[in-house]
Automatic annotation (TrEMBL):
This is Mutator family transposase. GO terms for molecular function: DNA binding; transposase activity. It comes from Leptospirillum ferriphilum. Belongs to the transposase mutator family. NCBIfam families: transpos_IS256. It holds the Pfam family Transposase_mut. Keywords: DNA recombination, DNA-binding, Transposable element, Transposition. Required for the transposition of the insertion element. GO terms for biological process: DNA transposition. InterPro entries: Transposase_mutator.
């Protein structure tokens, strides 16, 4: 989430700007929604997803995000059965954050190989090798790896050509950084409405650029793959951060 500062009742408080982007069934990247709230609060994510659904969002095939517990619960409520990809970049940082400094380099290399695995079976073999090598040197890191392993490798079931861009929320964070760069001159918004207007205006510019520019994905391979899936509904890939 993008944290901004808003004046409320003669005080200045931090508020999270929650932004959702998506990749449409024809491979075009889109801005889907913006709301202000608490990024750790399930109710904030619930409000956002309810609004997106009320405006016609459906057929979501994959949600990519960091491990926000409130967001996961809201997604499960509004899009039952949807696949969730935990951001591998954030997950890697979480694992390394629990490791002794001396072990972070070799552990990062091993995890890089795991995240590049061709199949879930190969990834499980690599995971077991990593745990065998590091369970005594970095036990908390191995607990973290075990806990989040399955959710971090959801994209392994997708065609390889799409995995690099679907493995993390990096594209969303770059969008947040660009919005931050352009809204920084404000410093403190006088109220939430003014924040919505300015950030919404910036996001509208990006939406227009994306809709008239090169497609984010060539979806031909995706649709070939979808024919083998049990659900053949129109699909959208949703990224939230």
């Amino acid at each position: 989430a993008l944290v901004i500062h808003v004046r409320k009742d003669e005080s200045v408080v931090p508020v999270a700007a929650l932004i959702a982007t998506g990749i449409s069934e024809d491979g075009q990247r889109e801005i889907l929604g913006l709301t202000l709230g608490d990024s750790e609060n399930e109710a904030s994510w619930d409000d956002m997803l309810r609004d997106l659904k009320s405006r016609g969002l459906c057929g979501v095939d994959l949600v990519i995000s960091d491990d926000h517990k409130g967001l996961k619960k809201a997604v499960q409520r509004h899009f039952q059965g949807v696949r969730w990809q935990r951001c591998q970049v954030h997950f890697l940082r979480n694992i390394l954050g629990h490791a002794p400094v001396s072990q972070r380099g070799p552990l990062a290399l091993a995890l890089g190989r795991l995240f590049r695995a061709d199949t879930k079976e190969e990834a499980r073999i690599l995971k077991n090798e990593i745990i065998g090598a590091f369970e005594k040197k970095a036990p908390k890191s191995m607990d973290c790896l075990e806990e989040g392993f399955e959710e971090s490798l959801t994209i392994v079931s997708f065609p390889r050509k799409y995995r690099v861009r679907l493995r993390s929320t990096n594209s969303q964070e770059r969008l947040n950084e660009e919005v931050r760069r352009r809204e920084r001159v404000i410093r403190i918004f006088p109220n939430e409405d003014s924040a919505i207007r300015l950030i919404g205006s910036l996001l509208s510019e990006f939406h227009e650029q994306w809709s008239t520019g090169k497609k984010y994905f060539d979806m031909a391979k995706y649709w070939e793959w979808k024919k083998q899936e049990p659900l053949k509904t129109p699909s959208l890939l949703l990224v939230v951060e």
